[in-house]
Amino acid sequence: MSLDRDWESIRPDRNHSAANAGMGILRITLLFGSAAVALALIATPFLDSRIRSQSARAELADLDTISTGSIGRRDTYTLRRSVLQPLPSSICVIRDNGKRSGDC
Questions:
Q1: 15, 22, 64, 91: which has the highest count of C-beta atoms within 10 A?
Q2: Contact predicate 77/93, CB 8 Å
Q3: pLDDT tens column, 41-75
Q4: Per the UniProt record, which residue ranges are transmembrane (predicted)?
């Protein structure tokens, strides 16, 4: 009997309860959850920049860079289109001196 008493004096908590197991699971869950959040915060900007650079290259492949005309820099004008005009393709050109041309 004295051996049992000696063991209990060294280690009195020999029984494991469900509360201790639940706390262990909670700690493991919090550890992996915080690791997942940290990884998401680090990986998201990195992956976003890689995707943007790839999409920018794809858009430039479809871009037509040929210029078909030029306009003198001294001429300033305004193009106006209105839903009240009889045709949707009607355009009114107003020059900087107030002269109008087109479908005004």
A1: 91
A2: yes
A3: 999 888 887 777 666 665 655 666 666 666 656 67
A4: 25-47
